[in-house]
Amino acid sequence: MKDARLVLAERFNAHPDSRCWHVAWNPAGTLMASCGGDRAIRIWGKEGDAWKCLSVLQDGHQRTVRRVAWSPCGTYLASASFDATTCIWKKKQDDFECLTTLEGHENEVKCVTWAPSGNLLATCSRDKSVWVWEVDEEDEYECVTVINSHTQDVKHVVWHPTQELLASASYDNNICVYKEEDDDWECKATLEGHTSTVWSLTFDPSGQRLASCSDDRTVKIWKCQNLEGSGVCSCATVEDAFGVSRYSPSLTVTSMCCFNRRHVLEVCVHSVRVSWTDRVRYCLVSALHPFFNSQSIYVTITACLQCLRTQCQLTGALVTACGDDGVRVFKEDVTADPDQPTFSLAAHVSKAHSQDVNCVVWNPKEAGLLASCSDNGEIALWRYQEDDE
């Protein structure tokens, strides 16, 4: 594998005297939105060679703003808060106006995300529920379903990139996948494999694979099986890759990838059970064990986002943020069996921030550009570079 590195491009204090919980690029990659414990949302744009704060949205929430998400068109911004509400902001020239406040969750809203169509919005909460909202042409929002498939806090929700398929991650260690059937949203798959809180999820651009990261210090890669007709699992995927019966309602996976202190790829034994209903199935095809400081008491992978393959030359690059203050980039071995992918550590900044790193996200347009944010209130911009670049 080519030698690679993360190079710091810029660092600035985004939320003084407060945690910066999340940062999100707009679809054009020209603006960033950040949020934090100061209850504010800040919009950032580049002026000359430096990023500057263009606007501060302060009147929407009464408590910490945990998450921000741009609509696919880039005109709307959603913000999720510990005050149990979600605000919808509309960009008007150089400013933003709060259009509406979505209420209904009984407790802290942890995440908000737009469907690729822009017509649906999902939120999740400490109240253990996932809500799906529908928006019409008049910018009116209506809750169309409330899903209660988790037994603990729901930490994260993410939409499939091309289908109206939704996944959620929870404190109950599980991942649920939902699909609309007969005007109602139902849980179609429960992915059980993590041994602690699942913090974050991301689909690859094709939607065939899902990455999850957890408080158990692992990143797992799941492969989607969209089955037609009988609902029998694909024998090529299940039998050939895992050596288990195609008719079994559970999968026992006997290998995963891990990194030791020298970041050398190893194989060790691990077991995972996957349960499902109807047509939507996911099976674990790989897992990463990046080495984290064994002295750390609070070590959490809090985000994992995959670079857009259609727009980024860094095919398969996966980046993680961690409670040990580090940022790591993993690269997939393109020569490996796609049903048994292997990843290796390509770049690592051990002290990317002076405190926990809460979020990492690739720029959707500029190859290798990455933003991270931290408990210290900062945003840092990084460039992922390989030697032949």
TrEMBL record:
CDD domains: WD40. SUPFAM superfamilies: WD40 repeat-like. One of its GO terms (biological process) is iron-sulfur cluster assembly. It holds the Pfam family WD40. Keywords: Repeat, WD repeat. GO terms for cellular component: cytosolic [4Fe-4S] assembly targeting complex. PROSITE patterns: PROKAR_LIPOPROTEIN, WD_REPEATS_1, WD_REPEATS_2, WD_REPEATS_REGION. InterPro entries: CIAO1/Cia1 (IPR028608), WD40/YVTN_repeat-like_dom_sf (IPR015943), WD40_repeat_CS (IPR019775), WD40_repeat_dom_sf (IPR036322), WD40_rpt (IPR001680). WD repeats lie at residues 23-44, 58-90, 102-143, 147-179, 191-223, 350-389. Key component of the cytosolic iron-sulfur protein assembly (CIA) complex, a multiprotein complex that mediates the incorporation of iron-sulfur cluster into extramitochondrial Fe/S proteins. As a CIA complex component, interacts specifically with CIAO2A or CIAO2B and MMS19 to assist different branches of iron-sulfur protein assembly, depending of its interactors. The complex CIAO1:CIAO2B:MMS19 binds to and facilitates the assembly of most cytosolic-nuclear Fe/S proteins. CIAO1:CIAO2A specifically matures ACO1 and stabilizes IREB2. Belongs to the WD repeat CIA1 family. Component of the CIA complex. Interacts with CIAO2A and forms a complex with CIAO2B and MMS19; the interactions with CIAO2A and CIAO2B are mutually exclusive. Interacts with CHD1L, ERCC2, IREB2 and POLD1. Component of the MMXD complex, which includes CIAO1, ERCC2, CIAO2B, MMS19 and SLC25A5. Interacts with WT1. Interacts with CIAO3. Interacts (via LYR motif) with HSC20. This is Probable cytosolic iron-sulfur protein assembly protein CIAO1.
